[in-house]
Amino acid sequence: MYDLTGFQRDLLYVIAGLEEPHGLAIKEELEEYYEKEIHHGRLYPNLDTLVDKGLVEKGQRDRRTNYYTLTRRGRREIDARKDWESQYVDA
């Protein structure tokens, strides 16, 4: 996870927290958190990067809608990050 941007890490956390989230649902969650609009040109290339890195799987709900789920590796990366953060934040 060290080679991800903060935005990509946030994408992973949102995907982990929603059941089969689609692009629009992810976008809405992040817009609420960031309090600003997230453009498609930022969202989808970063989702594709997470897919390419093997952290997220992309499925197709219908011809226009893709959904995203964490892979086992993605879950392990989040768990490892939480463990690392807890050394500093919870101490």
From TrEMBL:
Question: Which Pfam families does the protein's record reference?
Answer: PadR
Q: InterPro entries per the record?
A: Tscrpt_reg_PadR_N, WH-like_DNA-bd_sf, WH_DNA-bd_sf
Q: Which domain of life is it from?
A: Archaea
Locate the Transcription regulator PadR N-terminal domain: which residues? Answer: 11-79
Where are its TM segments located?
none
- Name under which the protein is recorded: Transcriptional regulator, PadR family
